[in-house]
Amino acid sequence: EAGVTQFPSHSVIEKGQTVTLRCDPISGHDNLYWYRRVMGKEIKFLLHFVKESKQDESGMPNNRFLAERTGGTYSTLKVQPAELEDSGVYFCASSQVGTGRRKNEQFFGPGTRLTVL
Amino acid sequence: QKEVEQDPGPLSVPEGAIVSLNCTYSNSAFQYFMWYRQYSRKGPELLMYTYSSGNKEDGRFTAQVDKSSKYISLFIRDSQPSDSATYLCAMSGRGGGNTGKLIFGQGTTLQVKP
Which residues contact B112 (CB under 8 A, 6 or more apart)? Predict the structure, then answer.
């Protein structure tokens, strides 16, 4: 079974440009999460989808970030326009719907390393 | 104040040593406690999962949760060079408000020297 995949693995863009990150969750996982780690800080929650619906987007830093999950399969996270402080590693995770361990056991992708110059 | 505090280290130990990693937290609503292991340039991998208080053992790894002290620990026995990684504690809430959103500690970098 394939794990969570993310594309690209690394992106270098200039301030003001647009970048779109993609996440493919494990097949059958309705929960999909985006997290971000900036240099020297802890991994922080950005948002949570259940299928195509946003359940919690309390961690999204501002309206330059837009996440979508059309059809409840893969998800994209667009940053437009990118700022220097957006640099970091963006992780996607997925889990099954349910309670307890089923929901809380999140499987992480390898991350996309975003560098904004 | 951060919800979860974790000493970033680095922590360096000789092969075969017992390693103790820990986190403290402030939110009494946390009910699910996890330890993730992250190798360089990889995503976090779930290592241990504990619900509420108590101990859990899996091979060389033991996780402990003390909710009264808001303190969790991970012990690694007979540490191996392959255990060298960053260890992240993570927690989430309970009840209807539990969306599975994880709150992470900063991670502790562990190096096990042969």
Answer: B12, B13, B14, B15, B17, B19, B79, B80, B81, B82, B83, B84
In the beta sheet, which residues pair with residue A108? A93
Interface test with A, best of B91, B99, B109 (most A CBs within 10 A): B99
Contact flag B100-A45 (C-beta cutoff 8 Å):
no
Over pLDDT 70: what percentage of chain A?
95
A34 shares contact with chain B (CB less than 8 Å): no
* CA separation for the pair B90, A22 (Å, rounded): 24
Task: Compare all CA atoms of chain A with the CA of B33 and give the residue at the minimum distance.
Answer: A104
Which pLDDT belongs to residue A1? 65
Contacts 24+ apart (CB under 8 A), A106-109: A106/A31, A106/A33, A106/B46, A106/B100, A106/B102, A107/A3, A107/A4, A107/A26, A107/A29, A107/B46, A108/A4, A108/B36, A108/B43, A108/B44, A108/B45, A109/A3, A109/A4, A109/A5, A109/A6, A109/A23, A109/B43
**Residues of A in Cβ contact (< 8 Å) with B99:** 48, 55-56
**B29 in reach of chain A (CB within 8 A):** no
Chain segment A13-59, per-residue pLDDT in tens: 999 999 999 999 999 999 999 999 998 899 999 999 999 999 999 99
User: Which of A101, A107, A108 shows the shortest C-beta gap to B49?
Assistant: A101
